[in-house]
Design brief:
Chains A, B: It comes from Dictyobacter vulcani. Chains A, B: This is dipeptidase E. Chains A, B: It catalyses: Dipeptidase E catalyzes the hydrolysis of dipeptides Asp-|-Xaa. It does not act on peptides with N-terminal Glu, Asn or Gln, nor does it cleave isoaspartyl peptides. 2 copies of one chain form a homodimer. Chain A is an alpha/beta fold and 244 residues long. Helix content of chain A is 25%, strand content 22%. The first copy, chain A, contains 7 helices and 11 strands. In chain A, the strands form 2 sheets. In chain A, strands 3-2-4-5-1-8-9 form a 7-stranded mixed β-sheet, sandwiched between helices. In chain A, strands 6-7-10-11 form a 4-stranded mixed β-sheet. The first copy, chain A, is globular, with a radius of gyration of 17 Å.
Chain lengths: 244, 244
């Protein structure tokens, strides 16, 4: 079986209801599955967050169950067919995934094709080898920055272009990603709001409402349009902790 | 002897040369000291960064020496009278401070009043108990988020107000600090660009070109004007890893 990933930059696009920008992609991804297990750990109010996701996803004909409510988490992870990891704070999310010992079992079942993985924002960041390209504040400390490692490159969700005429002297998003590339030889895909990646086995496509910007060490950033086949990114070399 | 800290939100303020916004504060802080040891570890080009700081600080009548150029770092840390920790990436900075075993000796000499500490941006973040309120991307992984712990609260440098009319759906700076307060019961001072804190023993003052915004769990954020005595912040309770 091939693995199936759907990785959103964000769930809410300006002026639209949650996932309204991605209805067709969601229907295709959910296919004939009827239950979505939701990991609310990037948020602080698990019940409230799960209810929001129910409202957004149940019109697609699925039942949404918060993973925090199941009695046997490890057994549920072995039986589940669709997992959605929601956004919020990536550090809080990863620390909780570590404490719940979710990383290895989820990775095994996603890569073997038994469990579909859908992520948004922090949940998309978790699909990468590490959380090193998150935008979030390190409010708590996970043991390691290593994440689900479902793809061999890094994504920066909510990618933002520099604001013209800004007087702010802090780093732009591009500055930050360039700093990442000084320390790591790993491609980073800046996924603008409204866009997503869809992976089916060895096939990877960009889709959605916005172009994406790819950063690699030693080359100028490149822009890709929705619909672009990015499968070649799945075979790119990635080396962490190697200074430029 | 009392300790002496000068903690800048940033070194470059829009439209000004480095530290031009803070000439009087710098002169007062440097007093009759003639050598500033500079820690360039938040950057990637240590020599280039040190030269930039030389150009900015030597008009104040001091010699600037990059700590990366000294032959015996631990001895230098015992003899130095002024340390400046510069900005850049906070994760890279803290990982390097750990590897160089700088945290404990610097803290001991600063708190005893023998070593003056000046920080900017990431260097200001390092003066806090932890780096948990940085804006930076976690491009490398330090062993711990614990920092110099020279003050008992957290600072968010380059504090930015929400942009009006923004269509971006990512978290605002205030959202991120609220997430921090969900996990930690520790005050966070949002230090806007152009402002700084000056600590002399038990006295702490805000100064510079902008108001600062203080966030505490369970209360609305409060604004403070340059010149405000914030010494009471030095005796506030701070508890990390305690959910709201």
């Amino acid at each position: 079986m091939q693995d199936n990933l759907l990785l959103f930059s964000n769930s809410h696009t300006h002026g639209m209801r949650m996932f309204e920008h991605a209805r067709a992609a969601l229907s295709e991804f959910l296919a004939d599955h009827h239950t979505v297990y939701f990991a609310p750990y990037a948020g602080s109010d698990y019940d409230g967050y799960t209810n929001t996701i129910k409202t957004a996803l149940e019109p697609f004909g699925v039942t949404v169950i918060g993973l925090h409510t199941v009695s046997n988490l490890q057994q549920t992870l072995q039986d589940a067919e669709v997992l959605f990891v929601g956004g919020g704070n990536s550090f809080r999310l990863l620390k909780t995934l570590e404490q719940l010992e979710m990383l290895a079992p989820v990775r095994a079942r996603v890569t073997s094709g038994e469990l579909r993985y859908m992520g948004s924002s922090a949940g998309t960041n978790m699909s990468c080898p590490t959380m090193r390209t998150t935008n979030d504040m390190p409010i708590v400390q996970p043991e390691s920055f290593n994440a689900f490692n479902l793809i061999p490159f890094q994504i920066n969700p909510h990618y933002q272009d520099p604001l013209s005429n800004s007087t702010h002297m802090g780093e732009t998003r591009e500055d930050r990603i360039r700093e990442f590339l000084e320390e790591n030889d790993v491609p980073v895909l800046g996924l603008r709001e409204g866009s997503w990646l869809r992976k089916r086995g060895s096939q990877l496509h960009l889709d959605g409402l916005a172009d994406a910007r790819l950063f690699r060490r030693g080359t100028e950033p490149q822009e890709y349009k929705p619909g672009t086949d990015l499968s070649w990114l799945l075979t790119e070399k990635a080396t962490f902790d190697q200074k430029a």
